[in-house]
User: Which sequence fits this backbone?
């Protein structure tokens, strides 16, 4: 194995980087044309909008939904957040704790979802009445987008069915 894999793989990587750099230029253009005063970035992997905004001195509010595994990747994303985000909004306290050395005064925790006490009692009763009874329920909830891995859930549910594991698989959400 050489450094970086086959020539075709290296060419593909170079092409992806060039496309992202092109996107950076296009984002800068849009931010300038629209006179953007703030840019919201959703999820850690969307680095290019943050880089484009900060290159124009536009503040970035970064919404963090994921917890990278400990190590280099977590440290890298924590570094980016410290350098690029004016504010960070995390979906949980665990997510907030996973960001290394980020100033507490620039971070807020705003959980996803709706607390059960805010759901009308009739809606909860109807859901409970329709919910499968007598065996465990395996739930996947979210908007049906490729990167969210719904196909893995469906594969796993099918494996459980084939193995005669008594459970009910439920998918909540809708296509984008």
Assistant:
């Amino acid at each position: 194995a050489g450094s970086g894999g086959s020539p075709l793989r290296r060419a593909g990587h170079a092409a992806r980087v060039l496309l992202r750099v092109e996107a950076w230029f296009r984002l800068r253009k849009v931010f300038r044309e629209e006179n953007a005063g703030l840019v919201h970035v959703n999820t850690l992997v969307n680095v290019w909008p943050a880089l484009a905004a900060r290159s124009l001195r536009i503040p970035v509010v970064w919404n963090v939904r994921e917890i990278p595994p400990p190590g280099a990747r977590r440290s890298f994303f924590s570094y980016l957040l410290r350098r690029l985000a004016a504010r960070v909004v995390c979906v949980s306290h665990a997510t907030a704790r996973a960001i290394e050395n980020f100033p507490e005064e620039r971070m807020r925790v705003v959980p996803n979802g709706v607390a059960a006490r805010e759901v009308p009692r009739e809606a909860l009763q109807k859901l409970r009445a329709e919910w499968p009874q007598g065996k465990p329920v395996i739930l996947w909830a979210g908007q049906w987008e490729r990167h969210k891995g719904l196909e893995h859930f469906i594969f796993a549910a099918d494996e459980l069915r084939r193995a005669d594991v008594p459970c009910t698989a439920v998918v909540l959400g809708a296509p984008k």
